[in-house]
Amino acid sequence: MNTLLSARPRLIPDECAAGARRDLAAHQSAHGRLDLSAYPSDLIAEVAASGLTGRGGAGFPTARKLSAVAAGTAPVVVANAAEGEPASSKDKALLSLSPHLVLDGLQVACRAVGSSEAYVYVHEGPLLALMSSLVTMRAGAGVDAVRPTVVAAPARFLSGQESAVVSRINGGRAIPSAVPPPVYERGVARRPTLVQNVETLAHLALVAGRGASWFRAQGTSDEPGSMLCTLGGGVRHRGVVEVPIGTHLGEVIDRAGGASQTLQAVLVGGYHGTWVPAAEAMDLPLSLAGLRPAGAMPGAGVVVALPSATCGLVETARVVGYLADQSARQCGPCLNGLPSLAQALLGLARCDRTHGLPDRVRQLTGLVEGRGACHHPDGTTRFVRSALTVLAAEVEAHLSGRCTATDASPVLPVPTREGRTS
Amino acid sequence: MNEAVQIDWIACDGRGLCAELLPERIRSDEWGYPLVSPEPLPADLLPHARRAFAACPTLAMRLVSKGSGGSR
Which of A51, A152, A219, A333 could form a Cys-Cys staple with A245, CB 3.0–4.6 A? Predict the structure, then answer.
């Protein structure tokens, strides 16, 4: 495994760190002109050899997804930039600083599955405007074989879910639909559809251009490559870093300048992720295998450090209130259960000494888990259960009427209705 | 013949007919939505399960063969 010193960033080069976008000329100077005919004739085999997995959170083997879609007729490819996770900004950073790597990857994906129809699905605002102008420019310059259509994604938590993406592009609402059939069989316009996170497409472009062995030079043998992480909370420099998979969380946090204060816990994986006690977290490798003993998963690389001075229960309650608000409201248990869960957690956070609040929280997590068309209730359940476990001491304190926190400033970002983040 | 009850959560409206017709395997939660017991359906319950399946106003209940993705 590479140490951080020798692990050069692949997706967002150092010169972009100051916020300067890499334009097409600089991109082609670094990576060469996009030449699909120069790539391996069996692209999917090369991707399989690389071991690339999805970077949108689910971690599905990319070659398998490509094969499934390639097996269908007239497939469609979607670059998914709808980063609905409030604590994640890696996709925004990637699109903003290295957009051509993503757009090259989209062309590679089209070639790999035999698609002549592509979409870029991105939130309204500067990034949508950027994508629109870049795809037009690339088409005019003859760079892209397939000209993507840019589609606006609502800025909601579930908008980037695979079937929600397809539903929106098909003209409906950006909310999940029930599987079956899976989108790789029937998606956009009822055709086999490949939905791929923009970071995955960026890695795909590099695998096509530099090969599987190059890709495997970072990361672990079972989980090769690098990943983008968004560091937040009690770290000196919040933002996006790129690390080889398997890097210890302590080193990842050091990349963000280290902890800015004493930490009690780390949230790994975002708002459908898991809390891990701080001391335990630092020695955990950021990988599926490394996090498994702690019951956590890397997800889309969100790492939020919770200061000891902050009330973890207040933070958890605030996030669950947001998650309840973000329900697609299609399924009864989620529509009813998440707001009830948020209310019970709010009671706990406020040191409400009503008898049985923790039991009510546990009962509600059992009632919503697995009883919906998508994994929103399941992810919320995972987040809540890990909070009750890791913050057990704080729960006890609150049940006896006192909160140990000394700092009331919010740590976990939650967008307000008006779109501002608090 | 190994069949299990599956719920289409988007279609389900919490009307509760399934719980009335198959109380041995389905009860209603506090909001009226079905809680399905994971125990297998023995042969003598299958006619009741099929009746519940047919009675659902939103066709939200399915009987699926265990081990396959098929539905009836």
Answer: A219
